[in-house]
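Suppose you are handed a protein chain with no further information: no name, no annotation, nothing but its sequence. What can you learn? This example shows the usual starting point.
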Amino acid sequence: EMSEEDPSNEFIIFTSATLPEYLSKITSISERLGGNSGDWRVEEIGDGNLNFVFVVKGKNNSVIVKQAVPYLRLIGESWPMKRIRAFFESEAMKEYYRHTPQYVPQQFYYDPAQTLIVMQHLHPHIVLRKGLITRNKYPFLADHISTFMAKNLFMTSGFALKSEEKRKRIGLFCGNSELCKTTENVIFHEPYVQSSFNRWTTPELDAEVETIRSHPGLKRAISNLKLKFQQEAQALIHGDLHSGSIMVTQDSTYVIDPEFAFYGPMGFDIGALMANLLLSYFSHAAPSDESIESAVEEHRHWLLDIIVEIWTKFSAKFLHYWNFEHTGDVMNPQFIACENTLRDMQSQFMSDLLRDTIGFAGAKMIRRIVGVAHVEDLERIKDKTEKSYCERLALDCATKFLCLFNEFSPETTIQDVVKMARGSRMGSSFGELILLNPLTT
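A reasonable first move is to predict its three-dimensional structure. Written in structure tokens, the prediction is:
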């Protein structure tokens, strides 16, 4: 039940000091942690924008406690935010755990009154973004994350769910409208207008920002992407699937933080992941130390290879589920009955999905460079000239992606997309793109 903000339940913002007493009263959690609650060690570890996150270590086990407070953690009480987002995170985690338990932390407890989730503590996992910054490679990442996306996007769509059940699920997640609105603002609106929330490397990127705000082709693409985001309830999407929402070791992968989850366009999740892998790729474009140049180049090749591998595996797995695990009311292989027609429909669907993915990836990259929330991959570069060099390459790629979204050809492959990223270049290229693609129609 969505009874998060019942005024009769007194809401407490927990701290490292007050959390043990609260947890000690929940038998299942107290037993899991073991020992005396006075001896539990609690550390606040949240580095996200929204919530407070604690790791609690007991005699036997440790757990993660995540609490949604009534404001945006990054900004403070001046940016109020409904706590009910924790309910949607809890629901999405349950759904994902049902389909892919190997890639989602287990949820042990949810308290609607305190909008608090107690879940499995992932260790020795690190956030994927941090691993990519230090140029770690993850040999199983593409296989794991493509399964996570293919299985969950398929199983929560009309390909797997009966119409009634799917509409019920859409209705449930419709309540997450505040975070959807936040997404619409920060991705599809603010970067393209003057907004006090926007920031960028100035004056180095001033000309690019001006172009982004005034270019009709980009406005056209971003308007159509926003329309898709609002209208297409294809499947349950994570809504924030970037490299900061994935935790990894060399051989395991977990997806965390689905509080933005709702029924939306599948390409939004795949595009978010692609955008963040590309931002990592571009962040390594200007190695300040020549002695590591070949190692950096090798890592950048690996990042592009993994983008190809993720899409290729995702596509194969999704089509496999379509052919062999179809239980829903749309695009049923038995109903279509003609193999060639089915293949045509499938290839059309995957081509449309690649187009959406490219468009959303472009939008995500732009917002991370000229919008409100940036990425550590680029923010860690202290030298402004070097940083803006990397950012220009990323913006060049992103604007090309949005123009490709406008003029997409069904023959386009993931290899073409990666070639476009590899071909991104400095300076005049951004201007040339604008001249080559006026797309004012």
